[in-house]
Amino acid sequence: NKIKFNYLYRDGSNYKSWEDEFEKKLQGNKDRDKLVTRELRKMGWKIIRVWEHELKHPTKVAAKLLRYMKA
């Protein structure tokens, strides 16, 4: 049973602080991510979200991808 990955998106999580000035930007990013995810799913894409900080542990990321492929 083959799974084709159309797109693997790496989320950034490198914000230095959660000050008021970033709240609007962060909310905009969340809204955009939801919209993009919804639109890609409508087109039949399967989405796996990998956060930037997860890449420090490639074995865990690989395990996450394998779990997804088996589902």
Features:
two-stranded parallel sheet; single chain; 71 residues; mainly alpha
Characterization of this structure:
This protein is mainly α and 71 residues long. The protein contains two helices and two strands; from the N terminus they run βαβα. It has a two-stranded parallel ribbon. The longest helix is centred in the middle third of the chain and has 23 residues, at 20-42. The relative contact order is 0.19.
Layout: helices, strands, pairs:
Blueprint: E1 9-11, H1 20-42, E2 49-51, H2 58-70
Parallel strand pairs: 1-2
Secondary structure tally, helices: 2
Query: Any low-confidence stretches, pLDDT <50, length ≥5?
Result: none
Largest beta-sheet characterization: 2 strands, parallel
Average predicted local confidence, pLDDT: 79
Largest beta sheet: strand ordering: 1-2
Order of helices and strands: EHEH
Instruction: Give the overall shape, derived from the CA principal axes.
Output: flat
Short characterization:
With 71 residues, this protein is mainly alpha-helical. It has helices spanning 20-42, 58-70, and strands at residues 9-11, 49-51.
